[in-house]
Every structure is written in structure tokens, then in C-alpha cells.
Amino acid sequence: MILTAACGAVGDLSEVPSKKPEKPASTSASACDVAGDDFAGDVELARCLTESFWAKEFQAAGGTYQPVQDFIAYDAKSGPVCGGEKALPENAFYCPDGHFIAYDATWLRAMYDQMGDGAVYVVIPHEFGHAVQAQLENDFSYNVEQELQADCYAGATLGGLINADLIQAEEGDDAELLTNLEAAGDPTDAWWEPDAHGTPEKRQEAFATGFDKGVASC
Ligand SMILES: [Zn+2]
Fold first, then answer.
1. What is the pLDDT of residues 90-116, one digit of tens each?
2. Principal localization (predicted)?
3. Are 197 and 7 in contact (CB under 8 A)?
């Protein structure tokens, strides 16, 4: 667990849901016709399931979810520009200027290989959490509160998908998700700094709140 060491202690896991997302129970139960059986498939499936989750949430609230305009895999320094800023290596981010998500595929793949598919199912829903914020707020900008809310939204997304049997939970690997939470990035800040994304404890708490209580609790 190289990233755990690099990011410091994961902290108290007692508050953490004892579930983790695993393979989809059945793709036929969702609108997502993607096989999540390898890295590329899991990334696409995480995107599709997350957007279908939010489409339903918005619909239930009388609104319409706007899917991201683009979903871009990049390699290290070849990433797309966002608001005049170049994409950073080893990162994933939502760009409000263009309403797209981009991720360093080499970096995400390394986490996937080290920690399992839970890596993808935390990082991607977190970034879609920002895409949702940008639709709900007039003057979206990144700050710690937004990061914690995005963690909460990610937890709510996973909890909702598990409850709908669109992904299966597996016991005994809580730390995987939370380690990944610490590693989830954004372009505008140093993600390893506690004051950029919140402390690991705060992030775990936000994630667990969303997971247990849903979007309204975020
Ligand atoms: Zn973020």
C-alpha cells in the first residue's frame, strides 16, 4: 500500500461502511451496457452508473441532470487544459469550463492495480460530485467544503448503486475505498494537503455520511 504510506495514516475506520463496491451484479439491470471486468471497462462502467444515478436523482427532484460533455483519459502531461491551466499528472479532475472530467489513466490504472477496482469507484464518483455541484450552484469554485461534499456525493452514489443491486458490496476491504479517497485529486489544489481536501478523517466521515444517508445528507 504505497499510497497509504505516502498519504499518512488512514485513521479510524470504525465509522466506515463495511462494504465496498465490486463487480456489477448484472449489467442488464442498469442502462449501462459495459462489462466491468478490466480497468477500461470499470472506468466506463463507473462513469455510466454514476451518471445514471444522478439522472435519477435529478429527475426525482424535478430537474434534469446534464451529462458531462467529455470524459477524457490522458497520459501524464498530455492532459486537456482547464480554464487556462494545464492538467497535472497523477490526477483526476472535473473542469467546470467545458463541463468535462479528465483523468491520468496511467495513474488511475496504477491505483486500480494496487488497490483493486474500488479505486475507480471512488475517484470517478468524486469527480462527478463536482459536476453535480457545478449544476446546482451559480458560482462553483473549489474549496474544502466542496471537496467534502463531493466525497459525500461519492458515498451516496455508491450506497445508492449498491442498494439498487447495480454493484455488489464485498465485506472486509473498507480501507481500499478510504485509501483511494485520500488519493482522489483535483487540479486546483495539492490533494495531499489536508487543507485542500480536508483531513482523512473528515473525508471518511463525509463519505460514510453519504453512503449511509444518501444525497440529501450531503
Ligand atoms: Zn475534488
1. 889 999 999 999 999 999 998 888 877
2. membrane
3. no
